[in-house]
Amino acid sequence: MLAFEDLEVRYGPVVALRGVTLELEPGIIGLLGPNGSGKSTLLKTLLGLLRPAGGRGEVLGVPLGAPDAAKLRSRIGYMPEYDALIEDASAYEQVAFWGELSGLSARQARDRAHEALYFVGLDESRYRNVSGYSTGMRQRVKLAQALVHSPDLVILDEPTNGLDPEGRTRMLDLVLKVRAELDTSVLLASHLLQDVERVADQLVILDKGEVKAAGSMAGLRRMLARRFELRFLDPLRPDQEAELGQLGTVLEARNGLYDLELADPDPVAAFRWAQARGATLVQLTPRHDRLDEVLIRALRPA
Ligand SMILES: Nc1ncnc2c1ncn2[C@@H]1O[C@H](COP(=O)(O)OP(=O)(O)OP(=O)(O)O)[C@@H](O)[C@H]1O
């Protein structure tokens, strides 16, 4: 659905994205990275608002910069980070107007505005001016605008910004519903790991304009399911410690505790390994809840 090869995007002399190579399937894709990492630049590039200075890319089968790339706008919905809602107009008017801007006829836009507002749970307040709306309601108007023309892909830039925990849960439930009920793919940019973890089936981690990690959440979880903390009865001798790598990748060693990504998914192998070397493994603690550590590791300077 999205593919980039060695993509480079610049703002004059500033290189905002470099060497970005990615291949992503339809689904819910989480785009994670700290401020300034290049998330918005990537979104603007695939919306056709920025031209790559180098490399190639393809969005929904259409090459970036192709003559028919402008048509892509009708297949993509965009929910920007900040709202530009008109205070003295109703949600219904604004969503219908957006539908027309996205290429629908006036009649289609009106019909679809009702459907989109119903979908985001704003059908009862749709004729009220948005000036009286809560932050959560305003976010949902923006989502309805992004969905009004039934796009194949919807891009959400920090959709939970400024929301309280209840509003966040509601927005993330809607993201899941977009994929499940509308069969629309979602690209969700966020700096909040918990949000991405909750909804995404694929993950891209950006930092300083480069991809630090990318892949399916299931793959990431499988990898995390092999992470354990090992505690031995006595400190390992240097010769035993040197052979620890036979069990998998040693991630960290501190005060006789070892964090490992085991090569064998069956942890019993670790006990056998210890026994064969005269060491006593007393505790093997799973660490698969630590997705945040993967993120920190990915963002750590090399
Ligand atoms: N119009 C611009 N002119 C010059 N440099 C820019 C411009 N827009 C962004 N940049 C730079 O490009 C880099 C990537 O910025 P970008 O806005 O894509 O990051 P981001 O991950 O979306 O951050 P945020 O979460 O703060 O929006 C940053 O170093 C930023 O300073």
From TrEMBL:
Task: Name the family.
Answer: Belongs to the ABC transporter superfamily.
Protein's name in the database:
ABC transporter domain-containing protein
Q: Which residues form the ABC transporter domain?
A: 2-233
Q: Which Pfam families match?
A: ABC_tran (PF00005)
Phylogenetic classification of the source organism: Bacteria, Pseudomonadati, Acidobacteriota, Holophagae, Holophagales
Q: Return one GO MF term.
A: ATP binding
Keyword annotations from UniProtKB, A to Z? ATP-binding, Nucleotide-binding, Transport
